[in-house]
Write a structure and sequence with these properties.
CATH architecture: Orthogonal Bundle
CATH class: Mainly Alpha
Mean pLDDT: 79
Low-confidence stretches: none
Largest sheet: none
Helix content: over 70%
Strand content: under 5%
CATH topology: ABC transporter involved in vitamin B12 uptake, BtuC
Distance between the termini: 30 Å
Order of helices and strands: HHHHHHHHHHHHH
Number of domains: 1
Oligomer: single chain
Number of helices: 13
């Protein structure tokens, strides 16, 4: 700090440069937020202008991204803490079945209780099993998916279940937008300002160091599972409220829901340097939704559609890994240079 104290320091600070830098960073964040979905949308706009040139199409794509964004927000802490839960799709499927059945007897309260309550119960069971087994792995989550799908089949049977039109109000504007914004706002607070968010990132970064610092890995992952259960229950509620109905799915088929959500988290990680993870997840989900809708619009074979989606994921993962490796190498070089400078300074001092 210059002589004259804090007042002179404040006066000597170039606030104009600071303001310009903040504006540049904010504009860069906005650019990165719209870049990936914007590029994908422009590609299909050029190929199918009749379909993608309408405002209604863009509105539909955004609205369709609400559910998967909510699922991805719920999974974000689990993935940050190093736990890939592939059973969330089956968990949501069972929740929609129970919610639909309860709505037939108790209306809207039954729908809400069935969706959110069932998801919370499943989440609690998963937490208890994780604490007993002391292990959380992708293989176990696949087993959960198979078991939950079987339970859903027993409860709902093979028929398609739908809710009454009176109970679909939460799936219509503005209720669906309000739910989406509230869930996003809560996740933004948890990710950006909560102590738990910092603990989850510490566990994901290095679980051993986190444990030595007094952060319990299993407690952190348990909270992540329950957060995923809450968001999964809300996603199930919105899914039914869109009036699409529900039916039992094969256990392995439900894993596709988890992969869709995980892709959103991967994209968020890809642009995390410039965009908050909550907004990054929505960017990823919207990009995938535009991609899949566009491939359907050009009548691409279903198998090829899945191939293109898979390639999209592989490319993002590859670029992310290459960038991480580059950052690690850069950090290693900086540490090496710093250590060399320290040794040189120590040698000069000893000579002097």
């Amino acid at each position: 700090m210059p002589a004259g104290g804090p007042i002179l320091h404040i006066l000597s600070t170039n606030w104009g440069d600071i303001l310009v830098k903040k504006i540049k960073n904010r504009l860069l964040s906005v650019l990165m937020f719209v870049l990936i979905p914007g590029i994908v949308y422009l590609i299909f706009l050029a190929v199918r202008p009749a379909a993608f040139g309408k405002i209604s199409m863009l509105t539909m794509l955004i609205t369709q991204s609400f559910i998967n964004s909510i699922i991805a927000w719920g999974l974000s802490f689990s993935m940050t803490a190093g736990n890939l839960d592939l059973s969330i799709g089956a968990q949501i499927s069972v929740s929609t079945i129970v919610g639909c059945l309860l709505s037939q007897s108790f209306g809207m309260p039954g729908l809400i209780l069935g969706c959110v309550g069932t998801s919370l119960i499943v989440g609690l069971i998963k937490v208890l099993l994780m604490r007993i087994i002391r292990m959380s792995s992708m293989v176990i989550s696949i087993a959960y998916a198979l078991i939950l799908a079987s339970i859903g089949g027993v409860i709902g049977g093979s028929k398609i279940l739908v809710i009454s039109t009176a109970n679909t109000i939460l799936g219509r504007f503005p209720a669906n937008l309000i739910i989406f914004l509230v869930m996003g706002g809560v996740m933004y607070f948890l990710q950006s300002y909560s102590v738990y968010g910092a603990r989850a990132r510490a566990v994901g970064g290095n679980a051993v160091l986190a444990e030595s610092a007094g952060i319990s890995t299993i407690d952190t992952q348990s909270v992540a599972i329950m957060l995923a259960a809450i968001y999964g229950g809300i996603a199930a509620l919105l899914s039914l409220s869109y009036g699409t109905g529900t039916s039992i799915e094969n256990g392995l088929d439900t894993i596709g829901t988890a992969f869709q959500a995980m892709l959103g988290v991967f994209v968020a990680g890809f642009i995390s340097k410039h965009v908050n993870i909550v907004f990054g997840i929505f960017t990823g989900i919207l990009s995938l939704n535009i991609l899949q809708t566009g491939l359907v619009a050009i009548n691409l074979d279903t198998n090829l559609k899945n191939t293109v989606t898979g390639l999209f994921l592989i490319i993002l993962m590859a670029v992310t890994e290459l960038r991480n490796a580059s950052n690690v190498e850069k950090m290693r070089r900086e540490v090496s240079i710093a250590n060399k400078q320290k040794r040189e300074q120590a040698a000069n001092q000893s000579i002097g």
